[in-house]
Inverse folding.
């Protein structure tokens, strides 16, 4: 005898287990009637294409208008302007002006080596720690300067470099010889201009040349001022110069060579650069149109402050993108899309002071681009305009461990 016939519980949501259907959860993506409607599928395909097109235009405009590079420059310059830079203005300059060039050196280049020797000896009387000579001494007439010494201080001679057709740099002569004489210290004078606006923003501690890796003048001068910096002199990665507008002791060479001149302990223990404006060595910089010796002073001060900021590393950008991707995936599972967007904006805004405090403000512009791209991708997923990714599984694991689960409220 058979008992009463029992029918299995009906599942109002095809393709979902009965326990989930009874819990009142929404149907799985792609299983409801709307998802099977060709018109709905076509509209979603159009919406997905529009989102990708908008993000593609965002990237295209950013690349063609140098938006990304300009944002990076802005971040670097603001990092330099806002950061504490105790060494700003610490390098003194003895400048050979246009009138000094005519009256003291007869308006001829190369400069008179005897007059240049006298100028360096006068500077040495002030008791500096390092004297950097930003003067071309490649002519053979400069050989007598090789035996010049300044007592306890160190003289670092500037050395030029010329580019070959293959792009490699060839170091030029110094003190009248192809390479620095024994006992003499030299450093390459190589600065980097931005390709877009021709503004000099970067320097390097060392340069790869046909003669090997050679230190630059800023790195060599800083290493003799602070011996702890000597170990990193051969780092060839370009760094941004931290330009800071600060009072700087600058004096014309004619005043230094005048009879009865007294330094009055104004350069004792300091770095002094000897250079000029007579050779039209001018550079556009974030603080204006200045002489090359002024740029070198800022580069040396940057080196003494621990070095300038570098361009964002690919590994750092990838890590930043992964973190933002997981964060937005979690936000989209716990919030509606516009709330997740506002939360993402708040995160980007909070990143600015955090990255500045860490000295990594240069990563803030990439964080904005990445957040926009991930937001478009998450928006597409939110409206079921595309298929799932591995990151969805990762974010689900994170959300399920949070209070309240992963439902949107």
């Amino acid at each position: 005898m058979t008992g009463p016939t029992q029918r299995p519980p009906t599942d109002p949501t095809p393709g979902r287990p009965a326990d989930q259907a009874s819990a009142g959860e929404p149907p799985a993506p792609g299983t409801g009637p709307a998802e099977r409607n060709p018109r709905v599928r076509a509209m979603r395909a159009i919406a997905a294409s529009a989102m990708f097109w908008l993000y593609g235009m965002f990237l295209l405009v950013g690349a063609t208008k140098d938006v990304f590079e300009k944002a990076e420059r802005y971040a670097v310059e603001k990092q330099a302007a806002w950061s504490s830079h105790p060494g700003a203005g610490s390098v003194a300059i003895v400048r050979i002006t246009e009138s000094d060039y005519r009256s003291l050196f007869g308006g001829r280049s190369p400069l008179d080596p005897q007059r240049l020797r006298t100028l360096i000896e006068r500077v040495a009387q002030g008791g500096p720690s390092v004297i950097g000579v930003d003067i071309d001494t490649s002519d053979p007439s400069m050989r007598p300067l090789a035996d010049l010494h300044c007592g306890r201080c160190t003289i670092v001679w500037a050395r030029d470099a010329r580019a070959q057709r293959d792009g490699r740099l060839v170091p030029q002569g110094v003190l009248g010889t192809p390479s620095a004489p024994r006992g003499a210290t030299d450093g390459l004078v190589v600065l980097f201009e931005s390709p877009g606006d021709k503004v000099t923003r970067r320097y390097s501690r060392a340069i790869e040349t046909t003669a090997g890796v050679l230190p630059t003048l800023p790195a060599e001068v800083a290493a003799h001022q602070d011996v702890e910096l000597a170990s990193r002199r051969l780092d060839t990665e370009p760094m941004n110069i931290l330009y800071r507008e600060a009072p700087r002791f600058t004096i014309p060479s004619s005043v230094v060579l005048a009879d009865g001149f007294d330094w009055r302990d104004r350069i004792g223990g300091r770095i002094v650069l000897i250079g000029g404006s007579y050779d039209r060595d001018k550079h556009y910089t974030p603080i204006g149109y200045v002489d090359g010796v002024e740029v070198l002073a800022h580069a040396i001060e940057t080196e003494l402050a621990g070095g300038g900021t570098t361009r964002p590393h690919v590994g750092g950008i990838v890590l930043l993108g992964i973190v933002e991707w997981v964060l937005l995936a979690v936000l989209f599972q716990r919030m509606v899309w516009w709330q997740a967007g506002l939360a993402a904006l708040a995160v980007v805004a909070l990143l600015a002071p955090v990255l500045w405090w860490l000295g990594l403000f240069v990563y803030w512009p990439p964080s904005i681009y990445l957040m926009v791209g991930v937001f478009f991708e998450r928006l597409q997923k939110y409206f079921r305009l595309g298929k799932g990714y591995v990151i969805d599984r990762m974010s689900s694991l994170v959300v399920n461990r949070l209070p309240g689960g992963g439902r949107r409220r």
